[in-house]
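In this section we walk through a basic example: taking a raw amino acid sequence and producing a predicted 3D structure, encoded as discrete structure tokens. The instruction is simple. Fold the sequence below.
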Amino acid sequence: MIEQRRNLRWRGALSLALAAGVVVAFAGCTNDSGSVDSANLVNGKQLFVQKCGACHVMARAGSKGVSGPNLDEAFSSARQENWGDEGIRGVVYGQILYPNKNAPMPANLVTGQDATDVAAYVSTVAGKPGKDVGLLASAVAPAGGGKPAVAKNGLLSISADPNGQLLYVESTATATPGPIKLEMPNKSGVPHNVVIEDTPIQTPVIKNGVAKAAGTLKAGKFVYFCSVPGHREAGMVGELTVR
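The resulting token sequence is shown next.
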């Protein structure tokens, strides 16, 4: 019900944007460089994942955000109403520049050519089945596939995905029982932390930098996760083995 209300509000905002004429023309076709006219779709995807993916679901970008509207659902309806890519681009561009004042999305999250690129990418893939191909398929490195984090000299480092995806680089970790220092490097600009479940070990939430915590581990298996609302549910979770 909550998600349904969010989508209704989003569709209402889209309709208002169209009525106000906030539409930017992006005529043309995709060329070998992966761009639509002056829009760089690769840059648009990378920026969308980094700046927008923590809030919005969009399957072809691999984003699983929970605090904003599901863009696939919202724009699937728009496509059924024959808005077309150009109409959707214009609305997304308008929402980037002039977001709803009651929404958590800040104005000018991306600007200039970057805003054009993000709007073009969203309009190209949102609400469409299938997967990105060509340069777009490799525009954002898969997250969560890093080698297991291994504690060394009492220090365990678990990194937040630097591209903004709601995942850790390492989905598994190992350590030995005893005192431990925990670090979480975060270069994404998205707020994250690490909590080791069933222990008092928890780093502060940070957007950039290295979050730190310390404590003592007993032998066993533990879940670690990000406590920012919705991030654990989106997949920012891993397993720590202490032996």
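Looking at the output, two observations stand out. The domain at 2-138 is CATH 1.10.760.10 (Cytochrome Bc1 Complex; Chain D, domain 2). The radius of gyration is 20 Å. In the next section we compare this with other chains.
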